[in-house]
TrEMBL record:
Name of protein: Electron transfer flavoprotein subunit alpha/FixB family protein
Occurrences of domain Electron transfer flavoprotein alpha/beta-subunit N-terminal (ranges): 9-215
Family: Belongs to the ETF alpha-subunit/FixB family.
InterPro entries, A to Z: DHS-like_NAD/FAD-binding_dom, ETF_a/b_N, ETF_a/FixB, ETF_alpha_N, ETF_asu_C, Rossmann-like_a/b/a_fold
Pfam families: ETF, ETF_alpha
Signal sequence interval, chain numbering: none
SMART domains linked to this entry: ETF
Length: 345
C-alpha cells in the first residue's frame, strides 16, 4: 500500500428519508479542522436515491467536494448496497481519512467498510486530531508525522486511549452524535460535485424491506434540548421524577437521567445521558442526585452551565459543575421550582 496516494478528509454524509442527519454537519466541522494542517480538502460522500438536492447544504457546512452515489437500490439504508457504495468510493478516490457517525447506521456500515478496504477503524471517538505517532518515540524508533490520533474511552471508561493507524489507509473513525461542533453555515457556499456509481447488482445478499414502522415519540430528543433537568439514583423513585418534571416545566426544560435510573426502570433508555446513553451539550444541565461517574460526565461535561444538587459535598459531579448546591434534593428542588416560578414568565 502506497500511503502517499491517499489524500483528503472524507465524511460519510448520513441521510435518512432524504434529510441530512445532524451528525453529517458535525463531522464536516471536525473534518475542516483536520484538513487544515494536512493542507487538503474536505469531501462529503452522499449515498442515497434522489439525494442530489442535499449537496448545497453540505457545501454550506464545509464540504469542498461532494461525491454523490445515487441509485434506486440506495433508497433505504441496507448494509450490503451502502457498504458496496462507500468501499467503492474509497477504492476509487483513496482518501487519507474517513469519518463516519457512530449512529445505528454508521455502527453497522463503518466496520464492514473498513474490513473491505483492509484498514483499521477506531469506534466511538471523542477527540480527533492530527499529530505525531508515537507521541514520545524512543531513540531509534521511527516517528510518523501528520497521523490521525483517535481518542476514545477504553476499559469501561476507566481510561482514555489514543489510537493511530500508521501503516494503512484510510484512517477510519466513528464519532458519536453530539460530540463534534458544526461550523456556522456559510450561506451560498458551493462544492464541486462528482457523480459516481459503482453499479449495483441485487443478489440474495440484499435484504428486502417489507415495511418500515416509524416510532412516534412525544418527548423531545434530549440531544436537542437547551435545558436538561437530569436525575440520578438519588431521586429515589420513578414517582419522585414528577418533582424534576415540575422544575423542567417552569424553565422550559426536558428531563433526562443517569444510567442507574434506566437500570431501575424509572425512565426509558432514550433519556439516558452518558457513555452508553446520549452525548448532550445543552445551555444548562441540572445534575440532581447524580454522583458524577466518569461514564456519566463523558456525556454532559461540554454543557455550557452545569448545576449540581447533591447531599454529598465530595461527590465527583461537583468537579465538573459551575454551580453546586449541597443538600437534600427533596427540599431543594421544590424550593427552586417555586422561586423560579416567580421570575420566569
Ligand atoms: C461500561 C459502562 C458504561 C456506563 N454508561 C453510563 C452512562 O451512559 N450513563 C450513566 O449515567 N452511567 C453509566 N454507567 C454507570 C456509572 O458508572 C454510574 O454507576 C452511574 O452513572 C451512577 O448513577 P447515579 O449517579 O445516578 O447513581 P449513584 O452513583 O448511586 O449516585 C447517586 C447520588 O445521589 C446522591 N443523593 C442520594 N440521595 C440524595 C438526596 N436525597 N439529595 C441529594 N443527593 C442525593 C448521592 O450522594 C449520590 O452522589 C456506565 C458504567 C459502565 C461500567
Amino acid at each position: 500500500m502506497n500511503l502517499e496516494e491517499y489524500k483528503g478528509v472524507y465524511v460519510f454524509a448520513q441521510q435518512v428519508d432524504n434529510e441530512l442527519s445532524s451528525i453529517a454537519f458535525e463531522l464536516l466541522g471536525k473534518a475542516k479542522e483536520l484538513a487544515a494542517p494536512l493542507n487538503t480538502e474536505v469531501t462529503a460522500v452522499l449515498i442515497g436515491s434522489g439525494v442530489k438536492g442535499l449537496v448545497d447544504q453540505l457545501a454550506e457546512y464545509g464540504a469542498d467536494k461532494v461525491i454523490v452515489v445515487d441509485d434506486p437500490e440506495l433508497k433505504e439504508y441496507r448494509t450490503e448496497p451502502y457498504a458496496h457504495a462507500l468501499s467503492s468510493v474509497i477504492n476509487e478516490y483513496k482518501p487519507e481519512i474517513v469519518l463516519v457517525g457512530a449512529t445505528a447506521i454508521g455502527r453497522d456500515l463503518g466496520p464492514r467498510v473498513s474490513a473491505r478496504v483492509a484498514t483499521g477503524l477506531t469506534a466511538d471517538c471523542t477527540v480527533l486530531e492530527i499529530g505525531d505517532f508515537p507521541l514520545n518515540a524512543i531513540p531509534g524508533q521511527e516517528q510518523k508525522h501528520n497521523q490521525l490520533l483517535m481518542t476514545r474511552p477504553a476499559f469501561g471508561g476507566n481510561t482514555i486511549a489514543t489510537i493511530a493507524c500508521p501503516d494503512n489507509r484510510p484512517q477510519m473513525a466513528t464519532v458519536r452524535p453530539g460530540v463534534m461542533q458544526k461550523i456556522d453555515p456559510i450561506a451560498g457556499a458551493k462544492a464541486e460535485v462528482i457523480e459516481y456509481n459503482p453499479g449495483f447488482i441485487p443478489d440474495n445478499k440484499y435484504v428486502e424491506i417489507l415495511d418500515i414502522v416509524k416510532e412516534l415519540s412525544d418527548t423531545v430528543d434530549i440531544m436537542d434540548a437547551k435545558i436538561l433537568v437530569s436525575g440520578g439514583r438519588g431521586v429515589g423513585s420513578a414517582e419522585n421524577f414528577k418533582m424534576l418534571q415540575d422544575l423542567a416545566d417552569v424553565i422550559g426544560g426536558t428531563v433526562s437521567c443517569s444510567r442507574a435510573v434506566v437500570d431501575n426502570g424509572w425512565l426509558p433508555k432514550e433519556l439516558q445521558v452518558g457513555q452508553t446513553g446520549k452525548t448532550v451539550r445543552p445551555n444548562v444541565y441540572f445534575a440532581i442526585g447524580i454522583s458524577g461517574a466518569i461514564q456519566h460526565t463523558a456525556g454532559m461535561e461540554e454543557s455550557d452551565i452545569i448545576i449540581a444538587i447533591n447531599k454529598d459535598d465530595s461527590a465527583p459531579i461537583f468537579d465538573v459543575a459551575d454551580y453546586g448546591i449541597v443538600g437534600d434534593l427533596n427540599k431543594i428542588v421544590p424550593k427552586l421550582t417555586e422561586e423560579l416560578k416567580k421570575v420566569v414568565k
